[in-house]
Amino acid sequence: MTKLLLVFIGGGLGAMSRFLVTTALAGKLGNFPIGTLAANFFGSLIMGLVVGLLAGRFESVRLFVAVGFLGGFTTFSSFSAETLALIQGGQLFAATANIIVSVVASLAACAVGLKLGGA
């Protein structure tokens, strides 16, 4: 239960932070989603730092920061960390498949959802 609470609180704080970042940057580059890009970039940077620094230690900090906060803050940090782990493990095919399938499938699923939603 403690683990779920750490993820829950971290995720909520991350989602609120993403909202603040994207709101603050909205319209700064026309229609380009600079806020989402910034959140994904900095969240992925922090994810790399957290994973590298903690490396199997401080499970509660990892759950709160990496899984919770960064999971709520970004749309890309977990994907980036998992893909790099595959690359570092020598699983280049799996990493490439993860990149292609994640991007293509997610875009397709969003398109289907938009269609089902009447857009």
Summarize the entry for a quick read.
This protein has helices at 2-25, 34-54, 59-73, 77-88, 92-116. With 119 residues, it is an all-alpha fold.
Number of helices: 5
Radius of gyration: 16 Å
Uncertain runs: none
Measured between the Cα atoms of the first and last residue, the distance is 40 Å
Strand content: under 5%
As a percent range, the share of helical residues equals over 70%
Could you tell me the mean pLDDT?
89
Number of strands: 0
* Order of SSEs: HHHHH
Class per helix and strand makeup:
mainly alpha
How does the major sheet shape up? Answer: none
Mass-distribution shape: globular
Any chance you could write out the topology, listing elements then pairs?
Blueprint: H1 2-25, H2 34-54, H3 59-73, H4 77-88, H5 92-116
Helix pairs in contact: 1-2, 1-3, 2-3, 2-4, 4-5
Task: Provide a descriptive summary of the structure in words.
By secondary structure, this protein is mainly α. 82% of the residues lie in helices and 0% in strands. It is built from five helices and no strands. It has helices spanning 2-25, 34-54, 59-73, 77-88, 92-116. Helix 1 runs antiparallel to helix 2 (34-54). It is globular and about 45 Å long.
Keywords:
single chain, 119 residues, mainly alpha, 5 helices, 0% strand
